Input
Amino acid sequence: MNTILKNDLILRTLRGETVERVPVWMMRQAGRFLPEYRELRKKYTFFERCKTPELACEITLQPVRRLGTDAAILFSDILVVPEAMGLEVQLVEKVGPILPSTIRTKEDLGKIRIPEVQEQLGYVFDAIRMIKQELAGEVPLIGFAGAPWTLLCYMVQGKGTKTFDEARRFCYTQPEAAHILLQMITDTTIAYLKAQVEAGVDLVQVFDSWAGLLGPDDFSAICLPYIRQIVEALKDEVPVIVFAKGAWHSLPLLQATGATALGVDWGLTPEFARQLTGNEVVIQGNFDPAKLYAPIPFIEKEVEKMLQGFGKDKYIANLRHGILPDTPVEHAQAFIEAIKNYSWSN
Amino acid sequence: MNTILKNDLILRTLRGETVERVPVWMMRQAGRFLPEYRELRKKYTFFERCKTPELACEITLQPVRRLGTDAAILFSDILVVPEAMGLEVQLVEKVGPILPSTIRTKEDLGKIRIPEVQEQLGYVFDAIRMIKQELAGEVPLIGFAGAPWTLLCYMVQGKGTKTFDEARRFCYTQPEAAHILLQMITDTTIAYLKAQVEAGVDLVQVFDSWAGLLGPDDFSAICLPYIRQIVEALKDEVPVIVFAKGAWHSLPLLQATGATALGVDWGLTPEFARQLTGNEVVIQGNFDPAKLYAPIPFIEKEVEKMLQGFGKDKYIANLRHGILPDTPVEHAQAFIEAIKNYSWSN
Output
């Protein structure tokens, strides 16, 4: 049974209600920029932190306690899904993810399967239950997953790159195998997110971090049908935020999936984001995290510009990508405070 | 004295004339995907290839001979400019560029200077003169330089990354030093491109490869004023193509600089690119080079779609970024042929 939430601002915003102020959280807020996280990182590997519910719970709560964000986001990684599907994933500090075995042909699909999520990813749901208990209704908890195209990128390429040429090659040269893979990831992701909801998350975000590597036509063929399936499967249970980074051109199509909110990247002015979506969907974004390096008065000025651009309602303040590791904590704090304290009455 | 050009299709297109077909060249056509280039790479380091006019000339001509592109582009690298300004540049195969000494503070600006381009970059102009002689008017020769923001990225970060966080940090935290650096790069680049023109190039392209890392406001403050200076200094001498990758949002502002043509990235449909620019400027782009991995009939179909979208006039066919190293040569050939042989009378 769900506890009543003390701060449900983000949920009211996602319902399109008129709110007293803009809610705020930060991508990668549970992580590297906090000294208390770096302490844990010294003692435990990434997967130890991810797979030990007590550690995942502690890391998830750190930014809520320290900064007073309007939501907690589960500490985990999008690559737990490929791992659960049968591909080994190594998360190497300062190098990024490495998947020693990759999918390059139709035959390679034999390496993977649609897993029983409760068996393979039970540690995530254990963490969610523990976090919900610890949060005691303080703020909502966000669950998440990678979008199928973005997970395909890693499963085909085997590591992070700027352009994921091998992933694009795979889709263009072996479209049949690509679509089988995308559907397998989609089926897994739907089961995974539904189980997150069952364990207690209040909303979910789907990260299509590499959507921007595809043009509009290819986005429509490779990303959109699978995102649509995920949204349709989840949206009656919890709000669904879709962040397809770089796919600004397809915002109207993403809106048509029925997603509750759309993340926008930095290429769009607030005005153009509103124009593309007819001011009818909740928008999340899009502060440059490198601006958190700058002096606090600069941050406050830039926050004000962003808030004025997007407006008070149907808007969730966030960064344009994850907070940078060496961001001064007091600057992140200033960002959160500037959003919370903005005077909407003027 | 200039030789009369046998194939001046790209120059007529750049003048906005009605042409018989679309001209085509490929970014990084002088390079890695050609076996005859890889042979030279075994024997000479990158800077040996760059700085020996005979080698730069040979590499520049290889794709013209092999594929019949409608233009040659000088074999060189945008990082010869930071090197001429006083920063050591190492080009490490399979790793990318490394600048051991970087610009991070105003004091660091003491490490660099605006060079005498004839002294520091004479090898480029020697190569251009040799290439022009060898080309004997076959096709025009494209000169090029990196845009100031993109060069700043490398000079501050010291290596390639996905997001150039240090470069953005530098601009946001030390705007005064950043603008001094941008102006120094601009002054060098103008002198460098003017000397390329004097040595014989028929047109130039300015590559702002990392423009897409900045939002519209920051692009306007950090990129645009310097691109404008370069365009204004050059456009009365030769056509200037500006390719600000990812800065689709600022196409109208780039058009207003007076640039002869604008490169467009893959986020834009041809229709939207034309709409943003009022169909008044020449557009260059935007085929996904990973599609050159696919079977030739697929390439032909995709080329047809692109040509129909952009139309015959005021358009230069090209890739959305450099051709990939392991592209089958016959597929690159099929791309070129599909553009050349497209029947516009239907």
